[in-house]
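FORM 7B: Structural annotation worksheet

SECTION A. Query
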Amino acid sequence: MNMILRRLSRAAIAGLVAAAALTAAAHSAEAADTLGSAAAGQGRYFGAAVAAGHLGEADYTATLDREFGSVTPENEMKWDATEPSRGTFTFTSADRIVDHAQSRGMDVRGHTLVWHSQLPSWVGTLGASDLRTAMKDHISGLMGHYKGEIHSWDVVNEAFQDGGSGARRSSPFQDKLGDGFIEEAFRAARAADPAAKLCYNDYNTDGVNAKSTAVYNMVKDFTSRGVPIDCVGFQSHFNSNSPVPSDYRQNLQRFADLGVDVQITELDIEGSGSAQAADYTKVVQACLAVERCTGMTVWGVTDKYSWRSGGTPLLFDGNYAEKPAYDAVLSALGGSGGPGEPGGPGEGTATCTATYTRTADWDGGYNGEVTVTAGSEPIGSWTATVTLPARQSVSALWNGTAAFNGNVMTVRPSWNGALAAGTSTTFGFTVTKNGSDAAPAVGACTAS
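SECTION B. Predicted structure
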């Protein structure tokens, strides 16, 4: 599919969910019971790194779609994945992530344009002149494919050495093009997509140290000379040997004071229980305290697929259960719990009913709508279950948030939980039939 048709297709998908997205935005202040909605209430995004190969797993996509408002392709936009042979681009896996995100109203961060790692072998064989051309062509080709569709790009990634020197890292770009390659990359990126935010991204720069100060001095130089840089990404991979630094907030603030946004781009914290929860709280609170900290991204959805899985560093365990760290992040963002949870209304004598209607039908799928109606007393929230026939799967949901257990979808309100006595609200979903045209079964509605 060519670029124009692909964008038209995405526009059509976006149109299907636009009404739901606008309605949810209009009511975003009324409830914030997911990470994405709570962060949005604070004027930030909360995202996750995503692997295209996991999007076929129902629990993975359900958790992603319910909780996060932004995605970062984990590997699918890197050089070896997108331009394995010079001048020949492949976007299949990256397109899958972008299409999924856009169909659900999520923003996308691009990661990454120029990096010393995950390079195809042909890059390292080029002389300086060819390498400069290839770098600019790669930036133009990748950003051009997604022009207008990516919120922010990690233009250059991890260009500084670890340790106390603050020196540049050896790489084909540094060794053959010199210090100026970073500026050249940013200027090429601005030309490729003037609307995208352009970020420098690195690790072990979370506190004030030699490496972060070297990055700081580069950013200060760029902003003073008009080199196009809009944001700095802090990877923020923490564990007991590399804890959240005491000057984390102050470090974020000093970069923000240069006139750039700061983003926490690859957050994960090894550990468990209350200690891990406390560390996540420190990070979220630091971002909220810095006005130009525009968002946070955890580096994965579930512990079982984390690059540091042995350290269980994420907010959902291997079974997609919410960990204490999840509750801590949601609370730090000002969110509220679900029915019967801390922050949510307790169950009482209020009642509700749920009825199902198929609102659209086509060969491969259908749209369903469930109407939730309060009983003789007002309700503060509701929960409804929908059991899907075998083989069917839900590909989109609006006016609600869902959790899946096998073929059972449990839906809670996104913004529309409170109902006066006798009044109704609806949530809707799109189902892929996969050869089954049977109707789903709607279980009892629970009110609180």
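SECTION C. Observations
The chain has 13 helices and 18 strands. The two ends are 48 Å apart (CA to CA).

SECTION D. Sign-off
Analyst initials: ____
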